[in-house]
Records
---
Amino acid sequence: MIRLSHVTHLFGDDIRQGLAAARQQAGRDRIRQTLDMTLALDDVSLDIPTGELFVVMGLSGSGKSTLIRLINGLIRPQIGRVDVDGTDVSGLSPRDLVRFRRNRIAMVFQSFGLFPHKTVGENAGFGLAIEGLGRAERDERARHWLTRVGLEAYVDAYPAELSGGMRQRVGLARALAVDAPILLMDEPFSALDPVTRNDLQGLVLELEAELQRTIVFVTHDFSEAERLAGRMAVLHEGRIAQTGTPAEIRTAPADAHVAAFVASAVA
Ligand SMILES: Nc1ncnc2c1ncn2[C@@H]1O[C@H](COP(=O)(O)OP(=O)(O)OP(=O)(O)O)[C@@H](O)[C@H]1O
């Protein structure tokens, strides 16, 4: 279970003053106007059960990346706490945090994050190299996952030889190869064409059914959320506007902002 409890996080110069304003529920606009600071997340509480494919949806600037970075411990919440499978992430020592990020969490990025001078196989095995696994085991596991994502013929190719969709399949194989129980996917398909995106969404659904890992999938696209999510949360200007199944959100959007998202997607 991933649990965010009353998490507030600001960016700017005078965090103390900003937090005092946030505690008094000044809101994002007033904090920007009066203090020139950004209230990235404002009193966010969220439970993501183990094994669920949970979608976080929101517009650019709504706080999605900040939320992901709080879950993987890249930033610590200024108010509130983040627990992952019973561990208070913000309470971890730097050494334990490195271990936590290596063993518990794998990431898939919008920009793929592949090394251009490494082969597809080396890229897929990269997380395993960091873990200190030997060459033979690394190659075997990388090959296994590359086969699973349909790229067995490309193990020795370089990323430049692949299409965007194939590159993201490598990103997926690399994330799966480390065998972490939690997969954080930050707008992984936003740079891809609709047909490729559709294929990769299908692959994620297959993998989720097969592996039952906890997947936190960030998107700004309600159609994508609707196809993938067991449950989802809509973030709006740093606050959670609504959580529920896609069907619940489609049927009864909590406010005009959520309704606009629903209307943007063809039923
Ligand atoms: N390091 C930072 N310094 C200052 N402001 C930041 C920083 N990181 C994020 N912000 C601000 O916090 C708010 C939330 O940003 P965040 O990146 O979490 O949103 P997002 O929903 O992921 O948007 P996007 O889809 O554009 O990445 C935005 O207004 C952003 O400008």
---
Amino acid sequence: MSQFVLSKLFACYVFVAGIALAGFFLWSHQQLALQHEKVTQQLESYFLNVLEMPAEEQNIALDSVMLGVELSSKNGSPISLVSLENSEGAKLVYWGENSDSVSANIESFYLADKLGNQYQLHISFSDSTLAGFVYHHFLPVLGLLSFQLALLLLTLRILINRSLDGVFSGFMRELSVINLRHPEPLQADAFLGQFAEYRQMLASVNRVILSLARSREELSDINEELETRIHDKTAVLEERNEELLELNKQLSVIANTDALTQVYNRTRFDVLFKEHVAIATRRHTPLSILLVDLDDFKKVNDQHGHQVGDQVLKHAARVIQHIALEDGIVARWGGEEFAVLLPYFDLSMAEEKAERLRAEMANAVFEQQAIKVTASIGVAQLCMQETASQLLKRADDALYDAKGGGRNRVIIAYLENSHTQLEIDDLQAGEFIEVFDVALEPSQDEPEASQKLLT
Ligand SMILES: Nc1nc2c(ncn2[C@@H]2O[C@H](COP(=O)(O)OP(=O)(O)OP(=O)(O)O)[C@@H](O)[C@H]2O)c(=O)[nH]1
């Protein structure tokens, strides 16, 4: 049942209870009046009967009437005074103790006997006043009032409990709809707004909400400012990062490139060489290496000076790079010596490449001084189970042989027990192509270095 219905019911209850109480008193007084009238009529009738008796019987009869009055007063009708006077005012009968206190309620009745003699009868009832009524009907009145009071207290208790419950639950319901991201003051509920506790709580919460909204606005401003700052800082950082990346690239190129000739340096070549040996071993693909040494380079230095020697070295590197093209990885091995790694090149292909290189070098003319330099080249192909250093050693031996054989020549490194050439020659055509179809996984630095050399 809602609080609204309960409060209306309570109002009805108070109204009906008031009417019932008033009705009870009115009805009681009416009943008393009827009772008094009946008793009065009886007394009048008794006294008339007695007065019509012979004189000698009257006293006895009057005594018996008064005894009846006394008994009646004690047993039910609360008569407090009865007196009978003749026309001269002489009292024939008088019964009652505190006639003064009840004098206001004394009613008088006039009697006449058969002989026409006039008499005045006075009767007073002790319960005809409110105090007397309450005194004589103490228990019923007390019971009724207690019942009314208990009912009133019970109703009030239910109403108060339900009201507080309603206020609390209604308030919690209001709280649950607060949007903390966009706080707005809560509107008072039409019904709950009747309760002062609810209104007080609502006002407190609305104060908190307003302060939240203010804080939120302040936070939003701070946030905006911070975002702008972060954005600016990020832009600067990104710029710096790009610069660093570029510097890193340059550093990487510097670290991996020979400063004079701009081909790979020895350190980088060692890494690439080992990687390609590992790939070729794993995939059973051919891999060859050329070791290229300029002939009598000391003479160039001696005759034209060290600086011209440098220019010749740079030019020689470009010639080697041009011949190797994208097939090979070129590095300066040290001094006037270069290495060319040729992945997927078997010995005959490598030999052909070496021969072309040697011829190109022999025909090339360096600098204005028309310096001519030749090169000796040692060629080797990776054998089964061979390590990088073993392969290198064989190529170096071949180069040594080329020098010993008169320079400006290509020497192929064969192994007496090598299965390399044999195995590759034995490969079926299909197998060979298949081997070549395996894509090389080039090092990321390769294209960069190659491009540098070509430009
Ligand atoms: N200009 C210049 N010369 C260099 C450089 N590195 C090494 N050399 C010179 O290269 C020459 C190599 O001399 P050698 O080892 O005798 O070899 P070679 O004179 O070429 O004789 P063979 O190799 O036997 O044909 C030395 O004179 C070195 O000074 C360099 O970076 N720049």
